[in-house]
Write a structure and sequence with these properties.
A 9-stranded mixed β-sheet has the order 1-2-3-5-4-6-7-10-11, sandwiched between helices. It contains 16 helices and 11 strands. It has helices spanning 3-22, 36-41, 101-107, 141-160, 171-181, 207-213, 216-222, 235-244, 254-259, 270-276, 283-295, 305-312, 344-353, 370-373, 377-380, 382-390; strands at residues 26-27, 47-54, 60-67, 79-82, 112-116, 164-169, 189-195, 227-228, 281-282, 331-336, 359-363. The chain has a single domain (29-390), classed as Rossmann fold, CATH 3.40.50.1820. It is α/β, with parallel strands linked by helices. The protein is globular, with a radius of gyration of 21 Å.
Amino acid sequence: MSSPIIVLSVLLCCWKIQFSRALPTFRGGLNRADGLCVKLVQPYGYQCEELAVETKDGFLLGVQRVWSANYIGERKKPVFLNHGILIGGDIWVLNAPPESLAFILADAGHDVWIANVRTSEFSYGHVSYSRSDREFWDWSVDELSAYDLQAMLEMVYARTNSKVLYVGYSQGTQAAFAAFSEHRLVDIVEKAVMLAPVAYVDHATSLLTLGAQTHLDLLIASLGIYEFSLRAQNKPVTEYLCKLSDDPECTENFVTLLAGPNCCINDTRRAYYEIYEPQSTSAKNFGHLAQQFRGKSFDKFDYGFWQNLVRYGWISPPTYSLPNIPRTIPFLFFYAAKDALAAPQNVAQLVSELQSKPELVFLPDYAHLDFVVSYNAKDLVYPKVVEFFNS
């Protein structure tokens, strides 16, 4: 074969790879009567589009595109909001527009994209499995990073033809750190804000990590339970966790024991929040968190000696190496003194291992949930997010 033909073949091959990457499988303009757009966005007068994007392993993720029709001026870069464990994308719009980050960013002229990872309430299921199937729950943060985050961010990139501004919260930060450490998506994300950033969790004081300390994850697995839920109807798990607490009013203080003593959440809205949260996650995802807590590590899921050999080519799972994250992404971290999941000691360890040092904002009165549903994040957190993205 002559050299010009070889060069042409290579160029066509590369073009096909880029083309397939730029056009993930998705559907837009979905008419979902019980969707996030209809229930939580459009009643406030904002424009909202329901989309579903398919991951490489067949999950149909829900993504909502939100914008303000009243904004006058040049449209700003797209912002992608990724939620944490045991919640969904609705967390960004549960408060009224002046107090919700999605609405604040839309009012500032941004094209806002709200993520809903696999199995969350505002996603669309799986092409083959139902919620009663074991395979539907066979995932952890590894899959959230490798499949969900990849599919959603590439869809946003394809739809907007623009680099993306990223906001992660809790496990939404961990999934991003995992991807960036493997040099995935670093050419798509322009800047990243991390609320309650999580890589390591061994200093966490949450009831979840108390459960990890007593190997609750192994007990759940031995019972053949695949869905991990903290809803009231799942009493065995909540009762087990409360037995680990020395709080005699654990049931009433359950949210505080999970997330820390949130300073600034309107208690009169608690019943409204509980309509939507907490949501289920997979028992395997909880198990992965438990492994990271006990191992003081930021590793992939540990399947045991033989399965690790088959999957990873080594007897132990690989580490997500934070020093591998390139300097090209500027970070802004918000962390809190009373956070029971993203403990300040673990945030300090995370920062120490990054090549480039993020801007840091420390909130002495906040705990884990204050970042997303407090009444004063609109004053203490969100203006700095907008300023960071617009600078």
